[in-house]
Design brief:
- Its EC number is 3.1.26.4.
- Belongs to the RNase HII family.
- Endonuclease that specifically degrades the RNA of RNA-DNA hybrids.
- By secondary structure, this protein is of the alpha/beta class.
- Helix content is 39%, strand content 17%.
């Protein structure tokens, strides 16, 4: 059996990074890269994936991303998934072009669109993150997180200009629109 792994939230300027792993126990129709599915279709598939798979989902909050770096958070999330699901399978495949220095992790570009287990992980990660951003949006009404999910849209940048960053914004992600520059070297996981 194969465990597919994918992430959601690598690029946003607010909110968590979410990494999911999924081992399918039954066939599921309609799986694809979460980014090409409608929200309604993702939600429906999410419930089916939960029912028909072994899975593990890991959240890394903005503070951890700022402290340790996004690569560190990705690698540790993958290792946690592997540890939690290794009794069910021995083969792990991550969407993308790197194995993050993990010798037992395979990787493939566009696996989220071509390998059903990775598609399932993509959907679990995206829906979990979107639900989280929707839930917290009422706590942060100035930012409209339910609309842009923490990505750097024009409206989101304007809200930061007006209200500053909240405690779920990633301060290590510098914004050119605010005149910020990346200073120093990005943290490496190797």
């Amino acid at each position: 059996m194969l465990c597919g792994i994918d992430e959601a939230g690598r690029g946003p300027i607010a909110g968590p990074l979410v990494v999911a792993g999924a081992i399918l126990l039954e066939d599921i129709k309609g799986l694809n890269d979460s980014k090409v599915l409608s929200e309604k279709k993702r939600e429906k598939l999410y419930e089916e994936i939960i029912e028909k798979s072994k899975y593990h989902i890991v959240f890394s909050n903005a503070d951890l991303i700022d402290e340790k770096g996004i690569s560190y958070c990705l690698k540790n999330s993958i290792l946690e998934i592997m540890e939690n699901l290794n009794e069910f399978c021995k083969e792990f495949l991550m969407d993308g072009n790197t194995s993050f220095g993990i010798s037992t992790l395979q990787h493939k570009i566009k696996a989220d669109a071509t390998i059903k287990e990775v598609s399932a992980a993509s959907i679990l990660a995206k829906v979990s993150r979107d639900r989280f951003m929707n839930e917290i949006s009422s706590k942060y009404p100035n930012y409209d997180f339910e609309k842009h999910k923490g990505y750097g849209t024009k409206a989101h940048i304007e809200a930061i200009k007006k209200f500053g960053r909240s405690d779920i914004h990633r301060v290590s992600f510098k914004l050119k629109a605010l005149g910020e520059e990346n200073i120093g070297v990005q943290k490496s996981l190797f």
